[in-house]
Amino acid sequence: MEDVFMMSRLVRLDVKWTGLHQANIPFHHWGHSNPYYELIMVIDGPVYLQVEDERLVLQSGECLLLTPWQHHKGWRTAEPNTSFYWAQFTADPALIHSEAAGSLKQSLRLFRRHHQDLRTAEGADEEPLLVLRRYLPERRFDILLLFEKLVAEMKQPNGNFRFRSTIWMMQIMQALSDSLLKRQQWDTPLPATYITYRELVNYLNEHYTQTITRQMLEHRFRRKYEYLCQLFNKYSSSTFTKYLQQLRIQRAQYLLRRHPEATIETVAQQVGFQDPFYFSKVFKQIAGTSPSQFRTGVESEQGREKAD
């Protein structure tokens, strides 16, 4: 089983140290360990590297990802002209190793799982980037160029160098992940049905305050209403009606906070409900409290903030 790491696309990377190690620098006499992730990429191999009790021979272009505090050293004298780049960095959230993620096949299945694009979805979608612990990428020369720029950035820091170093590091990780996906043939375009689904979600986002009929949807998307319902449910695990109600109540909560002088009836009409009593019923089902109680809670919270 190949060692794979999953890295959230929302990860915060902070590059701490970088460098270029060459054969004329002693490496096999002592060990190294640090509290950061460390990515090594061989420029000219072979590089004889021992990680804990594992002895490795890394060839030109190979990458190796070390986890925090992993002890590593050279296990024999380096051959002339060998060299490699290295970069130490932190990651928040932490990378998930294959021991927790499962096999590469399972990780790829997670990557391909379609995530919700709904405006009402709670939290952020942490779609992962997949990176192998040890890997010889196809785009090795492009990645070496990125590494060269990263090392140069950290060697002569100025201005927003930390921000730029994060960008270089992210591009390196992306290139490694892209290479893996291409190898596994998982870089194919998403199906046309998913594109239609996103267009459908966007349409609802833009028109939720209006009365949306099945005829309107069929005319707009040139598809049967039943098909659109199935498509929406497939990718969102929700329904048209439920999502429309969530959008309307989300907007109503904003209006109740922003405009305390507005009546419940006015707010209901502005978000697409003609019946204020039905609006209150739906509001309570979704928000867990009535519009009036919600507004009272907001006013109490604002009062406490002013007092503080």
Automatic annotation (TrEMBL):
Q: Which PROSITE patterns match?
A: HTH_ARAC_FAMILY_1, HTH_ARAC_FAMILY_2
Query: Which residue ranges does the record assign to the HTH araC/xylS-type domain?
Result: 198-297
Which keywords has UniProt assigned to this entry?
A: DNA-binding, Transcription, Transcription regulation
- Please give one Pfam family short name: HTH_18
Q: Which InterPro entries match?
A: AraC-bd, HTH_AraC, HTH_AraC-typ_CS
Q: Which GO terms describe its molecular function?
A: DNA-binding transcription factor activity; sequence-specific DNA binding
Native organism is Paenibacillus solanacearum
Q: Sorted alphabetically, which PANTHER family does this protein's record hold?
A: ARAC-FAMILY TRANSCRIPTIONAL REGULATOR (PTHR43280), HTH-TYPE TRANSCRIPTIONAL REGULATOR EXSA (PTHR43280:SF2)
Name of this protein: HTH-type transcriptional activator RhaR
